[in-house]
């Protein structure tokens, strides 16, 4: 996967035991849950593209009609609007595309025990949790066979602007083939041939006033279907 295609998102998770130790990190909240190209994943439009005109608050003018209040009644839509008003470069579809790519990269790096790839994508707390899980696996001389099959779905289920911090929660429906093998090659968890359906709910956050366009993964939960 080319870094330039991953867009702009830098991705906190802790967890109990779900899916071949991946879910030992991804399976529960961290206590930080809030209603909530180079080495980074970023959501940033083409710098050469013309800047969109600044909207006038929450007002939309229709042909032949007076300006009307366009404040959404749906909390998710309202949250996305608030984020867009705080960060004019934010685009929902671009964000989702980057979130999908970031998700695949993180779970694959975790399965491979690739700390170098994980470090810039995770907060300190999340990296610590991932690192502990990888260390446990290494201490047991276990190895992981992992294949990311694809997504069944990815949708925004929560969005909010808290002061200057934008938070967007995405529910991912993904499919993995995964197995943890012992030092002797026996299957400890999972299956090297069976596709598993997995549901993960990840929350990303970004300071809308910061020059850094990176998003950080700040909370996850997940389950295997």
How does this model look, in words?
This protein is an alpha+beta fold. The chain has a 4-stranded antiparallel β-sheet with strand order 3-4-5-6. Strands 1-2 form a two-stranded antiparallel ribbon. The longest helix has 20 residues, at 92-111. It contains 5 helices and 6 strands. It is elongated and about 60 Å long. The chain is 25% helix and 32% strand. Strand 4 (165-181) and strand 5 (187-207) form a beta hairpin. It has a single domain, classed as Nuclear Transport Factor 2, Chain: A (Roll).
DSSP helix count? 5
Radius of gyration from CA coordinates = 19 Å
User: What can be said about the biggest beta sheet?
Assistant: 4 strands, antiparallel
The CATH topology is what? Nuclear Transport Factor 2, Chain: A
Task: Report the principal-axis shape.
Answer: elongated
Strand order of the largest sheet: 3-4-5-6
How does CATH name the architecture? Roll
Which parts are unreliable, with pLDDT below 50 for 5 consecutive residues or more? 2-41, 43-68
- Structural class by helix and strand composition: alpha+beta
Number of strands: 6
Distance between the amino and carboxyl termini: 27 Å
Order of helices and strands: HEEHHHHEEEE
The percent range for helix content is 10-25%
- Arithmetic mean of pLDDT: 76
Domain tally = 1
CATH class: Alpha Beta
The portion of residues forming beta strands comes to 25-35%
